[in-house]
């Protein structure tokens, strides 16, 4: 922990920066303390007497000069000897009082607070900083007073952040920035703004943090090789990482690393280490995102030896290397241990047991040397949570229990109830299998603590854990109640979903989704009653909202569930099917008009369902119908539709329906979203031959009305020429001309189809249909979900700004058609991007293609669709069905490849 003399002034200017994310927890790096300023004659206040020094290399009695005291305190602080520095600072406070140098006394008190913070002595730290601020408030405003006040506020913000109170740190740092500006210290103001961004990140307000850091970037260009530039770029990269913009995050973090590598300050090695640590976190996130797109976890992927050669696995190895480099470069113990912790976690995830077993004792041996404080306790909890995965195999359960008990005792001594809750909750998790009763006791205490401080972001974990424990004991009703509370807590956290855990946006399937599915599994037992069916459906719809929130990295939806109200209309004959994929079975809930919910179970594993979907997709895209396709499609039909077929009145034998259902609306789950339900095969007919088929995201339909009740005017945009490494689309021109002949249309074609032209047209007229024929991709990653305009791709978030450019009081777009788009190859969750576009567009209905058809069939399909829609008083779903049937009856286009990819999302009327 060696540091350069002369950096004493620097920390007080940048106190409070926590400039790196650290996997499951994030620590607060220690830096140098205080500054000295010219003496001033000011008024006095009473100061507490100094404590008796212990184990000092010199006697305080021999030192009568306050400047010498501060220099000695600085050396001890920078050596990590915080306890020994305290009496020196206390003596400096007394000497400044004797000298009536009140400004220096206030500064010494601030430094004293900072040192107490390193020891986790929050009461003493608070008293010292408050006394300093009281002293400063009694002084006349001057450049020197403003400078010390700004620096003291910076330290107070750091104190709040260290205690887990970013909501209190933020306004203090805002005030500090203002005071820095008043004193003419523009760099200090920038550093306080960087601190504000860290507080915003800890509050889960990542987009505000990004905006804050982007705002200070121009000021940092004046000092391109400064410590502030390194920290600001790294903080911006970390915020972008959490916000899901991995491309921009990499750019900023690599810039931070490049400056740190060329930085000549002695602080460079540790700044370099911290930037390497952040890059390691980013690289790991990139790998996890790749695995998620494949519908796999790391554990699933490495179960097959050939998967270790895949790019995603190699990316994990690169992250391991970056963590190793960070540990080797680190000058501070906390940074080194954090890099080692993240590396240990990844070694265990990739099942490199020998290397993990060797690293664990290295980390453990360093823990006693860490200074007291919340960040140290968080690192110990992280170590326990990581090693807990192997505790039984490595015979470490007693060691982990002792570690967590020690953390709990230290947190109790400082009244840190949040850390107390974490320690007890982790003890509950440790004993979940071997000692469930003891585990329940720990979990209930942890939950009580987290609820007492309103920490919903950790309460949901203990509620979920308690639900598992009660379920294992056969206490089903109590387990349902616990799971219900966990889900309600998660839903209450929608605005801060990504801040529940630093990895949550990349491990959503492990960190949040299982809670929903386990709860549904508990509810949907053979004897499930009406209320349990209703609740199960609400939960799965809530999961779909949470998935979209996670997809967009923000709470993007505020909806009510009103599909039933639409189905119950007397003049409609629609049924809603909710298939739910669970580990060991497939559950289907059905809503029929004027009837209570129905429910049936299919005994088929999640793995079998997902494998069948993968194989079916391959067969669907062939230009001819294969026997293998029919077998796979019939299997899906038997799972999803056959049990309810007699009650649908679908003209098959054995029908028991009172009236015929003509439209099936699917609220699809997981990988089922990737296949067109219209192509399900009953052995004789495709589903589309009997029903109009639509897909709903499970959300409220925006004012569902038939298209025929409005004047139809279309905006048609098309791109036929090769652009941005995408090939030409041969039949787009024909498609555009066909639509122009069918509808009153404004056309943007090739060069005129730009982002700005599209937005201007949307703003200028009330188009009821917007038809876009161009390359596009739907992905489980929002940054890879886009449509291609002439000048640039328009991603899913930008598309909202383009398509909702009209007046706020204007009617929404009735129908958005996306032709020639496709789901990302190899991405099992790609249809999430399609649902995201449908939601972001704000249109009542969206028609899109699951795969690209670069041939005449697409143009033919669109022609038939618009003819049916405009010439007959039918629903959009029925117009789609008739267009698909027309292709199905054509010898040239009878294979599902040509007619099946077009799906209708949202309002089917």
Span of the ends, CA to CA: 68 Å
Return the structural class. alpha/beta
Silhouette: globular
Query: With helices defined by DSSP (H or I, 4 residues minimum), what is the helix count?
Result: 36
Q: Which percent band covers the strand fraction?
A: 5-15%
Beta strands, count: 13
Spans of 5+ residues with little confidence (pLDDT < 50)? 1-62, 497-506
Helicity range: 55-70%
Mean pLDDT: 83
Indicate the radius of gyration in whole angstroms.
Answer: 31 Å
Taking the sheet with the most strands, its summary is: 8 strands, mixed
Q: How would you describe this protein?
A:
By secondary structure, the protein is of the alpha/beta class. It is built from 36 helices and 13 strands. A hairpin with a 6-residue loop joins strand 2 (586-591) and strand 3. Helix 12 (268-293) packs antiparallel against helix 14, helix 14 packs antiparallel against helix 15 and helix 17 (374-387) runs antiparallel to helix 18 (397-413). It is globular, with a radius of gyration of 31 Å. The N and C termini lie far apart (68 Å).
